[in-house]
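Ligand: 3-phosphoglyceric acid. Inputs:
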Amino acid sequence: MDMTQTLDTLFAEVTLLPVISIEREADILPLADALAAGGITTLEVTLRTPFGLPAIELLRRERPALQVGAGTVIDAAQFAAVERAGAHFVVTPGITDELLQLGLKSTIPLLPGIATASEILAGYRLGYRRFKVFPAQVLGGAALLKSFAGPFSDVRFCPTGGIGQQDIGEYLTLGNVMAVGGSWVVPKASIAAEDWAEVTRLSLAATSLAKGRG
Ligand code: 3PG
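Predicted complex:
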């Protein structure tokens, strides 16, 4: 299976990709369970905190039903570390030649982050057809993705960055959106307060809207 097929298989039933940053080790499993109770099957754990890598390992071991991506991967050392940790896929905020080449060689698929048509082309010429768009809201939101559909008709995107519940309906009407990503379903304050019910409520609100996707 090539990388695009692997990503399409991983994301076949996925419309919402929570982007989580772990501040305390003890939060990892309850947070994942709260998301799962809200209909989440796939999430992205960022390497923005020291707990990112151990969180990926723990989730792969203790919650095998979840699909766990590694996010904010910015260099070769991190790429290798998340492969070893068992991540199902890798997400980067932007592209470098090094990251794109690593993605081609890896056994797990890469969703490279882009912000411009030129960056899409840099990946496209190497065979990439699925990208993260970051930071989506600042770049123009759904209007940007509609514009990309013209020149890049076989490309699909996962917009993230500044997206909230109020925005996802419009994204999900677009044929070139594979899933919508973001952290609005995992507010820092709710995690700090261990308010797992709130995480489940926000996830349910998003996944139930996404279910209506036609
Ligand atoms: C990401 O890396 O995908 C974003 O930081 C998530 O964006 P958000 O926190 O603005 O939702």
